[in-house]
Design goal:
four-stranded mixed sheet; alpha/beta; flat; 6 helices
Length: 226
C-alpha cells in the first residue's frame, strides 16, 4: 500500500483511533492496543469474540488519516463460550439458509477449532460478503476465512462495464469520479487514483462490484489526506 500524505501525525491518528474505539459501544477499548506508522494502524490485544475484533477494525477504518489497518487482535473465547465445532457448523448452515439473498446450497461450511471456512461459488460479491457476515457473529466463532468465488452468470462487454461503473461513480455522493480511473480486463476491474478517505476507497470498490458480470476487483486506489 502506498503511504498517504497527511497533515495528521501518526501520534494524532493513534489518539483518534483510541478515541473511536472508546466511542464504539461494541468494544472495550482497554482490551485493544493501537500503533500507527505512516498512517497504517496496527491493532493488538485480546478480545472474547470475533465480533469485537471485526468491530475494532471497522472503527479504525473510520478514522481520518488511516490508510490501512493490520488487525492482529487475538480472539480468546471464555470457557463458557466455547462450543463444539459441529454445533457452530450447524448454526452456520442455518444462518446461511435464513438469508433470502444467499444461494446457501452453493456454500460449503467447514469449522475447525472455532474457525469457519466458507467455500463454493456465488453470483455476486454482495452475496460473498453476506455469507461472511452471517457466520462471523455466531457464538463460538474465533475467525472466518472466506474462500467463496464470485462467478457471474451474465456477460457484459468491457466497454459497457467501464461506462456503467463510471456513471455509477459520478452518481455516488461518496466518490469523486474525476479522481478515479476504471480499467476493464475481461471481467476484472482495476481501480486507480487518489481519494481522501478509506470510506471513499471502499465505496468505489463496492460500486465496481455492483456492475453485472464482474468477477474480480483490484482496488489500487491510494488514500491521501491533504
Amino acid at each position: 500500500m502506498t503511504t498517504a500524505t497527511t497533515n495528521r501525525t501518526d501520534g494524532q491518528i493513534q489518539r483518534a483511533v483510541l478515541d473511536e474505539l472508546k466511542w464504539d459501544p461494541r468494544i472495550q477499548p482497554n482490551e485493544i492496543g493501537v500503533a500507527v506508522r505512516n498512517g497504517v494502524a496496527t491493532l493488538t490485544g485480546t478480545v472474547d469474540s470475533f465480533t469485537k475484533k471485526w468491530a475494532a477494525e471497522e472503527a479504525a477504518h473510520d478514522v481520518a488519516g488511516v490508510v490501512a489497518v493490520a488487525n492482529d487482535i487475538e480472539v480468546r473465547l471464555p470457557t463458557d463460550a466455547k462450543r463444539l465445532d459441529s454445533d457452530i457448523a450447524a448454526d452456520a448452515v442455518r444462518a446461511l439458509d435464513y438469508d433470502a439473498l444467499l444461494p446457501a446450497e452453493n456454500v460449503e461450511v467447514t469449522v475447525s477449532q472455532g474457525w469457519v471456512t466458507l467455500r463454493g461459488e456465488v453470483e455476486w460479491q454482495f452475496q460473498r460478503r453476506a455469507a461472511e457476515r452471517a457466520v462471523r457473529r455466531l457464538a463460538g466463532v474465533r475467525g472466518v476465512t472466506n474462500l467463496l468465488l464470485v462467478r457471474p452468470r451474465v456477460r457484459t462487454s468491457p466497454a459497457e462495464l467501464k461506462q456503467q461503473i463510471g456513471a455509477a461513480l459520478v452518481r455516488n455522493a461518496q466518490t469523486d469520479a474525476q479522481q478515479i480511473s476504471v480499467e476493464v480486463v475481461g471481467n476484472k476491474i482495476v481501480l486507480r487514483g487518489e481519494v481522501r478517505s478509506w470510506a471513499e476507497k471502499t465505496a468505489a470498490e463496492r460500486i465496481a462490484w455492483a456492475a453485472p458480470g464482474v468477477s474480480e476487483v483490484d482496488n489500487k486506489i491510494i488514500v491521501t489526506v491533504p
